[in-house]
Design goal:
By secondary structure, this protein is of the alpha/beta class. The protein is built from 8 helices and 7 strands; from the N terminus they run E-H-E-H-E-H-E-H-E-H-E-H-H-H-E. The structure holds NADP nicotinamide-adenine-dinucleotide phosphate.
């Protein structure tokens, strides 16, 4: 299927590695000019060069913290009128909520709730005027099935999900659609880091935990970031204007439900 994205422009936040990077690659393959962000300039530049080489697309790399006003302004200056916005960020730390103070909570809410909301605020009126917009927020399977040790992630992402559910229905008639993708286990630095920490705490080899995590998934494997990228490109397609405010789980069937 031709996704109808040739010549469109996208901002993909937090995209030097992992799921964001995969989304940028998939969009670039569809002929989209992509502006990618991350904090570590050298890694980001490397990723931008890789995507250019792989796809021939125009790729702009903007180093900065997407949770900060400056970081967002820099991304928007490089791509002021995006047709597509993929909101992503690093996730909050694992731990026990008794150890988290107000500053830690504010950081989590800033990063995983307010940063995407302010990016949406900056681009949505232009999308409405142009009668085309696709926004995908990368959240987490924890939105449907909370993970005990990820309380800040559960909380901040629930806030974003609730906000998006309302806004998506206000803007859909302008052909501006907002959806969320909820990753289950994808073997990225983030998941490896979490499993390394769990291995340390339980004094078990990390490979055992990775095997266990895969065995507990109906697909019997972890997700490949490339398939996450493809799902994201699909949700950015010109053809999906009737898919509105959905929370698409990509978890290999891990969430057990007759109708998700
Ligand atoms: P990852 O492999 O660790 O990649 C994170 C990317 O985000 C890197 O490019 C990183 O680059 C960038 N980044 C982090 N903080 C940033 C900031 N403040 N501003 C700009 N860029 C930033 O992580 P991932 O696995 O792709 O995860 C992406 C999101 O999905 C996270 O929120 C994660 O919690 C969520 N998630 C992932 C999984 C999974 O299995 N992988 C499951 C559920 C949810 P810099 O560090 O250089 O900034």
């Amino acid at each position: 299927m031709d996704l109808g994205l040739q010549g469109k422009k996208a901002i993909v936040c937090a995209a030097s590695k992992g799921l964001g990077r995969a989304c940028a690659i998939a969009l670039a393959r569809e002929g989209v000019d992509v502006t990618i962000t991350a904090r570590t300039a050298a890694v980001l530049e490397e990723t931008a060069a890789e995507i250019r080489q792989m796809t021939g697309a125009k790729v702009i790399a903007v180093a900065g913290d997407i949770a900060s006003e400056d970081g967002r302004a820099a991304a928007l200056a490089a791509c002021p009128s995006p047709d597509i916005l993929v909101n992503n960020n690093g996730g909050p730390p694992f731990g026990d909520f008794r150890e988290w103070d107000r500053d830690m909570w504010i950081k989590a809410v800033d990063g995983n709730m307010l940063a995407p909301i302010f990016m949406i605020k900056a681009v949505i009126d232009g999308m409405i005027e142009r009668k085309f917009g696709r926004i995908v927020n990368i959240t987490s399977a924890s939105v449907k099935s909370p993970i005990a040790q990820l309380g800040m992630s559960n909380g901040a992402r629930a806030g974003l999900t609730g906000f998006v559910a309302g806004l998506a229905r206000q803007v859909a008639h302008h052909n501006v659609v907002i959806n969320n993708i909820l990753p289950g286990p994808f073997l990225t630095d983030r998941l490896r880091g979490g499993l390394r920490e769990a291995a340390r705490q339980s004094n078990r080899p990390v490979d055992d935990l990775i095997q266990e995590r895969q065995a507990n998934t109906p697909a019997r494997r972890a997700g490949d970031p490339a398939e996450f990228g493809d799902a994201c490109a699909f949700l950015c397609s010109a053809k999906i204007g009737f898919i509105v405010g959905q929370n698409l789980l990509l978890d290999g069937g891990a969430f057990n439900s007759a109708s998700t």
